[in-house]
Amino acid sequence: MVRRLERVTEWVMGVMLAAMMVLVFSNVVLRYAFGTGIVWGEEISRLLFVWLVFLGAILALKNHQHLGLELLVARLSPQGRKLCAILSHSLMLYALYLFFMGSYVQTVIGLDIYSTVLRFSTALYAAAGLFPALVMAVIVLLNLVRILMSHPAAMIPGTPDHAAFGSDL
């Protein structure tokens, strides 16, 4: 189920990227060749880009592909690495809470503000943070529970054996 959702997300991201490419390329050609352009293309491209970034962040977190520096943590004992992982996961959950709340506030503010050309609610931009914040919080929380339970699939940064790398939730 999780793998299927991941594939659907990747497919949606591919469609969004293709649409952005077509819109931006068409606008460039139309501007230079004909002195005109697709007026609404920039708004749609910007909206797709925002959603694309946040959907990509979910996949990167799920697959442990965000940048990280494990040099110091790798030198700690297994218990020290576990303690650092618990602390970092707790901080990530707090940051995701702040991210969700900020996105929520901005979404509410954006409900009464409309884009210049297409007149869609600018809440669509800020709403792009709501879903990823929730999904990323679930991913982090599941790994935190695994760490606390000493589950073999727990991903603890700095651990020499990353057997859980890329595994399903």
Reconstruct the topology from this structure:
Elements (H helix, E strand, L loop, with lengths): L1 H33 L6 H22 L15 H33 L12 H4 L3 H19 L21
Helix pairs in contact: 1-2, 2-5, 3-5
Concise overview:
The protein has 169 residues and is mainly α. The protein has one domain. The chain contains five helices and no strands.
Please provide a written account of the structure.
Its main location: membrane. It comes from Elstera litoralis. One of its GO terms (cellular component) is plasma membrane. The complex comprises the extracytoplasmic solute receptor protein and the two transmembrane proteins. GO terms for molecular function: transmembrane transporter activity. This protein is mainly α. The chain has one domain. The chain has helices at 2-34, 41-62, 78-110, 123-126, 130-148. Helix 1 (2-34) packs antiparallel against helix 2 (41-62) and helix 3 packs antiparallel against helix 5 (130-148). It is elongated, with a radius of gyration of 20 Å. The relative contact order is 0.13.
Oligomer: single chain
Mean of all residue-level pLDDT scores: 91
Number of domains: 1
Please identify the structural class as seen in this structure: mainly alpha
Number of strands: 0
Order of helices and strands: HHHHH
Per DSSP, the total helix count is: 5
Uncertain stretches of 5 or more adjacent residues? 163-169
For the termini, the CA-CA separation is: 10 Å
Q: What is the makeup of the main sheet?
A: none
Strand content: under 5%
Helical proportion, percent range: 55-70%
Q: Calculate Rg over CA atoms.
A: 20 Å
Shape field: elongated
